[in-house]
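Q: Could you write out the predicted structure for this multi-component system? I'm mainly interested in how the pieces pack against one another.
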Amino acid sequence: MNDSPDLRVDIGGLVLKNPVMTASGTFGYGREFAELVDLQRLGAVVVKGLSLQPSMGNPPPRIAETACGMLNAIGLENVGVEAFVREKLPFLETLSVPVIVNIYGKTVEEYAELAGRLDSVEGVSAVEVNISCPNVKAGGVAFGVDPEAAYTVVREVRLRTARPLIVKLSPNVSDVTKIAEKAVDAGADALSLINTITGMAVDVERRRPKLANVTGGLSGPAVKPVALRMVWEVVKTVNVPVIGIGGIMTAEDALEFLITGAAAVEVGTANFVNPGATMDILDGIEAYLVKHGIEKVTDLIGTLEI
Amino acid sequence: MIDERMEIIGAEPVSTDCYRMTLQAHIGYADARPGQFVMVRIPDGLTPLLRRPFSIHRSRRLSASRTALEILYRVVGKGTRRLAGCRPGDRLDVLGPLGRGFSDPPASGPLFLAAGGMGVAPMVFLADRLCRDEKRRRDIRVFLGGRTAEELLCRDRFEELGLPVVLTTDDGSDGDQCLVTYPIEEQIRLIPPTMIYACGPPGMLSCIAGFADTYGIRVEVSIETLMACGLGACLACAVADRRDRQRYRHACLHGPVFDAREILLP
């Protein structure tokens, strides 16, 4: 048997050299980690969520640490799509790593326009549509909790892009499979989940919320069991690749998602704690495959026995 | 910047709830600038989850390949409480040096170093560096404020450098019973400095930032914010931009030291 297992995975037509990606909003535009991570080794970089216009985000305080997790209400602060293409993308293009652009809009038209704009940009490998941010007033999660709204926004984006289309789902719903099915019906090539879980924390001395936005999104190890359960529900329901996200800190966490049926994973909060987390996870997945004599990572995916 | 597991080579209390910790660090820290910071966590374990930011308190060369990196901190929550339990020989994950430090001083003229409470942490490093230039030593005045005498930390370190130190406390237990900003303003009227470097609570920094406008003095403030990564990725450390209300600055990248005219202090 070959010493290095085949780690390649196919995400709706986009072939990645391995299943380890960065989660949007936790890895900037890649360059922020260039001194600490061998970016070339990543399966893909998913960049900070972009809107048509630059967005300043929410007022601080924007984060609060909770038990084994963190709440954030950044509010999708970003440089806007034009500045991204002009100032951020050229660096990413120097890497031989697929760039997945996460997008969000306040209206269906904004989503469609963004997708159309990026479709003409070389160096964008795929689009991840964020219909699940809990921290922006309009749009965001509004599209992610209503199956019909999700269908509409994904269909409009589908009409404007030929790139692999990933839809990022919200966990803040009673039945995630309903949204998942609608997104696939509308043309999604892959699904990624979960985005953060809506949460809240209170400063008891000041009797005020710890976040200026009052509520925020919970991420980190605390959410992993929820994420895993939702990935399991979705992989049983749809026949497109599913990307697992939620509290992945270690290779073992990532393997849980792969075994459950995720075709790939996105590593998020772990990047804050350990900037080299993606590399450790990648090494750990490879070591696991070698140890178990598994030649291809795709032979592991979805092998969960119930 | 380096993400390194460092050995603790010194850990000592400096008051009832404040500690000084020395770590054996990469030689790269010999080039760290006063005002820069590090992100620290105790390896393994998920509580607390996130790293905590600390100003570099001092950085001294130990050998051709190692630097002694000091941090000064007060126990304020879970993270710092666990840190206070660490002993020499234990190891910590330290990411740094990060952020933008203090600027070089103008070529001549008096320099004020203003520290309130734990704001003294980066000021010791700054004083150390400024005093490398023997000629500038006599230009430097240190203003140290605290709620009580116990909060006036590191006075000895400034005095070892031969710097005059003006003390104030809220309760009059040492120095003058007033805010540290009073003697600073008094001195400004007598001998206006060409630069004020300040670190301390938001109210103190707002007041000193006001001196920049009132007296036309260059003021640099080192601010403290919550942050998760220290790298410009999490964007938690948003600071209001004074000139452009449609954007935030970020303490980890554009700071933690800012020209007082750049930002709106809370």
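A: Regarding packing and overall arrangement: Chain B touches chain A through 29 residues (CB under 8 Å).
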